[in-house]
Every structure is written in C-alpha cells, then in structure tokens.
Amino acid sequence: MSTPCTFTIDLAAQRFTAFEGSESIFGIDAKRILTDLDDFRRLPPAKYARAIWLYFSRPDEVDRFGKVYAALCAGSPCQYYVHMRNAATRQFTLCKVSITPSADGKTAQGLITPEEPEK
To answer: Residue 43, CB half-sphere, CA atoms under 13 Å: how many?
Structure first.
C-alpha cells in the first residue's frame, strides 16, 4: 500500500513549491515532479489547471480540476477523489486529495492519501 504524500502550492505564482512522499504514489521523486511542473506555471490559469491534472491523473477526470483550482483561488478548501498516475508503472491508484488554502489565500497545503481497494 502506498503512503500519503504532502504538497504546497504558491497559488499566485501557479507553482508547486514542495512535495514529500511522492515516490510511493507517483513512482518518481519530489525533485523530478517539481521540475516537471515548473514548466506549466507560465500557462494561463485554465491551461495550467488542465496541464497539472493531466500530469497527475487520468484524462477522463480532467473536468473536475478546473472547479477545484477555481475554488482554491477563491480561498475555499477542497476534497475530492481521483486516480493518480504512477510514472514508473503507468498504473493508477484511487486517492483522496485534500487541499486547504492559507488564510491570506497565497498558498495551499495538500495531502494525497491512497484509498484501500474494496474487498
């Protein structure tokens, strides 16, 4: 079973600034993820949201992320379920993602928790 992963986003700069525990879910280290994601931050907000979503998860779930990103930028916490992609195995794991923006709305903290498959 994968372990949880935490992350921090600078909302104003459209930039992920920290990732911890990424190897378990995504199959690659935090430095690689941050480098890959840095390329997206120059995109307009809607294209940025789509690019981030496609990097992490299944294309058929992309329509949810625009709403999530808009809510975060408006200062609202978000919680949703999504299938996260492991870059090493190309397999997907259902995860719960919880993201809470800071009081000043400039950053957000996130937690990605793998869900146990039903038996």
So the answer is: 14
